[in-house]
Structures are given as C-alpha cells and as structure tokens.
Amino acid sequence: MSRHVVGIDLGTTNSAVAYMKNGKPMLIPSPRGQRIIPSVVMLDMNGQLLVGDVARSAQVAMPDRVIAAVKRQMGSHATVSMGGQEFSPTEVSAMILRELKGYVDREFGDGEKEAVITVPAYFTDEQRRATKQAGELAGFVVERIVNEPTAAALAFGLDRLEEEQHVLVYDLGGGTFDVSIVEMMNGILEVKASAGNNMLGGEDFDWLLVDWLATKFRKLHGLDPRRDIRAKSLLKEQAERIKCELSYAETAAVHLPVVTMKDNKPAGLSLDISRQEFTVLIDPLLLSTMDCVRRALQDAGLTTGDIQEVLLVGGSTRIPRVRELLVGMFGKEPHSEVDADEAVALGAAVQAGLKSGVLADSGLIVTDIAPFSLGIAVAGQRHGMKRTGIFHVIIPRNTVIPVTRTDRFYTALPGQRAAKVEIYQGEHEWVKNNYRLGEFLLTGIPVNWSGHEEIDVTYRYDLNGILEVTAKCVKNKKEQSLTVQDALERQSAEALARSSDKLRQLYEQAIQHEEDDIPWDEDEDIFAAEDEEETDERITPEELRRQLRLFDAKLEKLALMSDKEERKTIGQLRRKLKDALDAGDGDRMAQCLEMITDFLIEAQLREDT
Ligand code: AMP
C-alpha cells in the first residue's frame, strides 16, 4: 500500500486539495472538474449531506439547511444548526474535509491518506487543534498543521530556490487576514514575523454591504429586511456579487424585485453602488490590515525598502483598494504570478512533499515561527505592589520553531513543597487577558525558606505548534511534564468520540439515499483509541495527602495571626481540605491543593508588602 501525503487548504470560503506530481504541486479536482470547492455544507430534506457548489446554490432558498464560513467559528464552543440538527464547527469542517478525501481516494485508490492542513498564521492553539481534529474526524492522518502564508511562500519559493529576497505575504481571504514576512536564501525559507486578525476577511465586507443595502431598503419601505432570514440570505448573496463586480467595474447595479413581503405585497430594491462608496465602507478594515503589515515589518526588524516582493494571497486581494494601499506603502506592484485562490493549497502540497520525502532532493528547507508568546503565570512586583497573575514570557512571539527555552523560578513561600505551573499564550502582561493552555503541579520540592528553592521550567515548541512543558526542581532533580496538546485532546476525547459517532450516523443515513457511498473506516476513530492508552502520571494520592496535611498545619498557624475575615476563609479552606481527605478523591484533593497554594501565596505577598 503506497503512502500519500496531500496538502489541504481548508478556507473560509473555498477549499482545495493538492499533491506533488513529478516535482510540481497539482490540485486534485472534484469529479465535476472543479479545482476549488465552496466550503459550504448542506443537509437536504432526505438527510443527505452535500458539500460544495450544490450546497452553496441552495443557500438563499434554504438558509436553515446550509452552513457557510464555519471556519470563523473554529475553536469556539458555539454550535451551528443545519436542518434542525446542531453541529460543532469541527464537525462541519470534517464534512468539508471528508468531501476532499473522496477526491483523494478517487485519485489514489484506497489506503491510508496523510494530510498537511493549512491554517491562518494567526490561528490560536485551540483553533489549530480544532482543525487537526476535523482532519482526523474526516479520516486523514494529520501530519502537520502549516501556516497559510508560509504555504503560499512555499508555492512561490519552489521555483526560486536560488534567489535571495524578503517576501511579504499579504493574505486576505474570506474570514481571516494574515501577513507574514519570509526570508528566502539558498533554498531556505525562514518566516521572520507574522501578524494578523483571525476575524477579518471578505465576509466582513459582505456584511457591511448587507447593512448598507438594508439601510437603503428601510428608508424605502420602513422595515428591516435582515429580520427575514431568507431576505438576509438574499442580501448576503447580492452583497458578495456586488463586491466582486466592483473589483472590475466602477459601479454595480442591484435589481431585486422581491426582497421580502410587506403587507402581503412584494417589496424590492433597485439601485447602483459605486466602487468609491464601497471603498468608504471597508476602508477602516483595510487600513487595520496595513497596521498589521507595519507591525510585522517592525517585528522582523525590516523596513519597506527591504521587501523585494509583495505576494498577494486570498480572494479578497482582488479588491483594487488593497493593491492601491500596498503600492502606496511599498512603492511597487504586488506579485500576482501565483493564483491567489490556489497558492495556499499548492504550497500545502509542497509541504506535504517535504514531509513524504518526494522533495527530499530539492534543497528546500522551511522554518516557521511561534505566532504568539508562550509563558507562565508568576507572582512579582507590579506598579510598586506584589501581585500574582503576571505573564512571564518564556518563548516570545515570532521565535523560530522548533525551539526549546528554559527559565529559572523560585519558591514564593517558606516551606513550599509544590509549585503550580500555569501555561498561557498571548501578549498581555496579565495572564487573565491571555489564553490558558493548561496547568500542572510540581510536587516534592524540599522544605526551605521562600525564594531558596530553584525550579527550572522548560518550554519545547515543535513545528506542529505542540508545546511540551517541564518543571524541574534543581536541587533534587524531581520533574513533572505536560504536553499541552495531549492534555487538551484528552479532555476533548469524549466529545470527539461523540462527533465521530454522529458523523458516522449521518453518513450511514445518507448512504441509504445515495448509491455512490463513501465508506467510514472503523480504524479511523483514533481519538477514542488514543484515550484508552493514556495514563495520568501527574501526582500520587499519597503525595497529595501528605502535602495537604502540611498545608492544614500551615493554615492553622496562619489563622492565629489573621483578622476575622481571613479566619473565616481559612476555616472554609480547612473544611474543604478535610472533606477532600475524608473522601479520598484525587481530583478534589488536587483542587484543594491548588486553592490553598494560591491562598498561601496571596497571604505571603500581603505580608511582604
Ligand atoms: P479565500 O478565503 O481566499 O477563498 O477568499 C474568499 C473571499 O474572497 C470571499 O470573501 C470572496 O467573496 C472574496 N473574493 C473572491 N473574488 C473576489 C473579487 N473579485 N473581488 C473581491 N472579493 C473577492
């Protein structure tokens, strides 16, 4: 059985799959010959799932049976409704990926399929994880998650291995915006900096136009058409058409005899909109993308004069104002040799080729960066006061990955036997404003004065964006680790097993309506299987008990020196501690340990100030 690795662009608006054929990336078309398909899913009246053009064309007629632009919700806990059933964004993305897997199976026949899937560089860890899960739900072995601008640069760079230059990739798609600065030198592609907004794209321009059209309609008829779900869908469809037309023409006409009904009579809209009017609507958003460009340049330590090529990626870069702004900033025309719609999928295929080994002799090497800072919650001085919840960065954003960094920390309490390692990503100085990735306890620290025990915390961040954190007590070498991705996947394994069942049922149901069925392989349910093999080696119950008893003695002493309010809190904590010990419940004991550690650190800090 041969091994195939394909590259997939799972876009907000369109998706595509490609692979390396005779040293060149090639798209795998749908059976109807389409190179890219709309990322739109529909559950029809017969319970059959339809993906792509057919689903897209049903959007206006059956908006409650169709889901589009689900990528914008990836990684969130929201659900989307389709044909009266609720789905997670991951499940809907899995449906799109499964459609693409059908094309791959047709091309290569049965057998295991590995995939490299692209995501916006500015996707968070959670959004990346959701994408990986969608791929695995669809039956792919997801080899790597790659940043879209990096993929685009790869598609561009494959034919320019000898050139030395800095390329700025400006990627404005349907739902996300990314800018990356890539250095190419002797076949090595190094991403220097990335910036972006994962909630900004062509969809936003459409909705601004919908609002504009709705305002015109309301002035004319005295009612808001957006309240009628069908009218809203119709306006959205028209808005996208107008937007695309205005990329080529100075004005676009709207002629809709029926938008909705008013007093049982059709109420319509006919008007013209100019490119200028449209530009005024979207300009604040486009200008915000230019702020990101400036930030990326600054992070890379470059100026506009250092950029030899500006590469446009994503359908929304066809808007003339985008070009105009970039020409204004860089003083040169952007590059348009690589197809803006296909560049990401083609680049993903190049990355897949590097992975599978078919490009091993090309001399091409790619390095990527961490798009966010990664760090730990610490206590320390801020604004003249001792505070907890300060974000201490261990791996700064834009660090080239893979990377391993170690920082040294010290115990905050006298006699502190355990240290909580709280892992965050983000850029804010306070952890509460950043995104929490996980936490664990390092126990068995020798008893000593506060600040006298050293703890080394090591962050290892690999090419897939998987973070492993290790904390080690320097004196006795005791250490504890957590792989963030594994930990998070463990938490969501049950939800994934449920999703897998749900999708299986949906396809089985559809198979009854469809002769050309797609098999769902039992062995592909890998999340559940992995979960069974997981073992939790974090902390033994005996150790927990010993630590809690120590803390109890500490709390008792502290109560003697405390005021009434604090004594009350201590009393509550000791009751919780006793209940957890009596119940012998590991989770509750660990929870208590954390609460008391926090409380004691706070108390110590108050005393110090
Ligand atoms: P992508 O996510 O790269 O597939 O880009 C899709 C987005 O590009 C959608 O919002 C499309 O409406 C938009 N788009 C495609 N063609 C044009 C065009 N000619 N002018 C403006 N926007 C376009």
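^ adenosine monophosphate complex. The chain has 14 helices and 27 strands. Confidence is low (pLDDT under 50) at residues 487-491, 513-538.
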